[in-house]
Amino acid sequence: MTVRNRKFPLFIVILLAVLTTVVSACAPASATEGLKMAPMSEMSDEVRQAPVTVQEAYQFAVANPDVLTQLPCYCGCGAVGHTSNYSCFVESAKGDDIVFATHGLGCSICVDIARDAMRMLQDGKSMPDIRAAIDADYSRFGPSNMP
After folding, report:
1. What is the C-alpha to C-alpha distance for residues 126 and 11, in angstroms, rounded to an integer?
2. CA 102 to centroid of chain Cα atoms
3. If phi over 0 gives left and psi between -120 and 50 gives alpha, with beta otherwise, what is residue 142?
4. Helix 108-122 crosses helix 52-63 at what angle (to 10 degrees)?
5. Residue 68 near residue 122, CB atoms below 8 Å
6. What phi and psi values does residue 98 have, to the nearest 5 degrees?
7. pTM
8. E strands along 1-147, which residues?
9. Are 66 and 46 in contact (CB under 8 A)?
10. 36-78, pLDDT tens digit by residue?
11. Sign of the four-CA dihedral 77, 80, 84, 87
């Protein structure tokens, strides 16, 4: 009986080690792996102080205006003149001179749209497919800021 009790905990330890290995092998890739991202040194102080998910959305926006200018936002920001999801993060960009929009710092819908685009790009989705998914997922929140 004593031998059996010693083997049982050893069995649990081995089982946990195997499960940990399997789970870590199935873990999703980094949220930014394989994506073009602007360096954190180019971000404003406000962005640097934001949560990591918000920082990554801004870094992605700066490095990928061609992606986010094709995607709408559904948070109601069209009323303040935003014309795409990109507008939620970048007010203007001329060369290295970037004026950050502060809207994305406090709007989870804007950040979620950018992060969904990031994930879908990593998954190999096309821009028309990404746009369709964004429209389907976010149109319940309000009107698009794009035609």
Report:
1. 47
2. 17
3. left
4. 60
5. no
6. -115, 130
7. 0.79
8. 90-94, 97-100
9. no
10. 999 999 999 999 999 999 999 999 999 999 999 999 999 999 9
11. negative
